[in-house]
Amino acid sequence: MQIGFIGNPARTAIKKYLRDWIIWLFEQKHTVAVRSDVLNLVDYEVGSMPDLLPLDSPASIARCDLIVSLGGDGTILYTAGVVGNARIPIIGVKFGGLGFLADVNPDEFKDAIAEIENGTIHSQERLLLQGERADENSISGLGNALNEFVVSRYKSSIAIRLRFWIDGRAVTSFVADGVIVASPTGSTAYAMAAGGPLISPSCNSIVIAPVNPHSLTARPIVVADDSRIWIEPLNIGKNDLLVSADGQEVGRLGRQSMLRVRKASYDLTLLHRAGHSFFEVLKAKLNWGNDMRELGNDDD
Asked: Which of 12, 90, 253, 267 is the right S-S partner for 241, CB 3.0 to 4.6 Å?
């Protein structure tokens, strides 16, 4: 098996583990590829261990059987963009904060690899979103997102009016700071902060959530994952609107332009250790469902 490492070089704790992991993987007859910005975290002398393969091109990514993401959930989002449509499974080793997507602790790495080898690893297919900007005479791609696409204000504090369409039909318009179109994976990220529902990753659905709407009736809505969603700006003033995908700017919306979001043509495969449960992760990471009356609160 060829195993590739992609990581956040700012997480210096990776250095404590990576060299030993690479040596162990070679001993297990695997080959190893490492992205160049992570290579500086491999503490070894030239010639002291087998050669590492580069991992800085789509062709080198495509040769891997497994990608290991080293960092936090943000690194998983970055890794998903790097892997693209190569359809290579990703497993996240946690060197960050929340650990909602990257949930394998460093001390569990070898056990996780063993579960992959013996077929007991838990595999999840995660829906990806595809974004496109449509102008009067053209459509341009804005890439894919694992969590969400967001339309928001740019260089302005004035609320914006947005209309959204589903499958060619105008649904409603609202005044807000922006709007989020999220996958089930993204339902526990920005969309949750905007008051959206929590959705199991296995559900075939998409969330549309206004950001700080200026109306009590503008509520998040869940639609089928085969829906074609259009976001149309109605009053944007002098400044274009910002379009971001998984927190990264990918484009702008001006007058007579729209954002189309739909399910991508491929999914992303995330691996978790055997026994992984979405609901247990909600409880552990977000305190979901916890009753404060049962957590040692003595106040009546």
From this structure: 253
Instruction: Report the pLDDT value the prediction gives residue 300, as an integer from 0 to 100.
Output: 46
Q: Total domain count for the chain?
A: 2
- Which comes out higher in pLDDT, residue 83 or 103? 83
Whether residues 17 and 77 fall in one domain: yes
Q: How far, in Å, are 132, 147, 226, 246, 265 from residue 143 at the CA level? A: 7, 12, 18, 11, 12
- Say if CB 12 and CB 78 are below 8 A apart: no
d(CA 79, CA 57): 13
Per-residue DSSP letter, 104: B
pLDDT tens, residue by residue, 179-197: 999 999 999 999 999 999 9
Between CA 128 and CA 186 the distance in angstroms is 10
pLDDT(157) > 90: no
The kind and range of the H/E element at 113 are: helix 109-118
- The answer to whether position 23 is within a domain reads yes
User: Chain-centre distance of CA 143, in angstroms?
Assistant: 13
Residue 293 lies in a domain: no
- Cα dihedral 170/146/288/103 (nearest 10): 180
Residue 134 belongs to a domain with what CATH number?
2.60.200.30
Residue numbers of the domain that contains 256: 129-263
Catalytic positions? 73
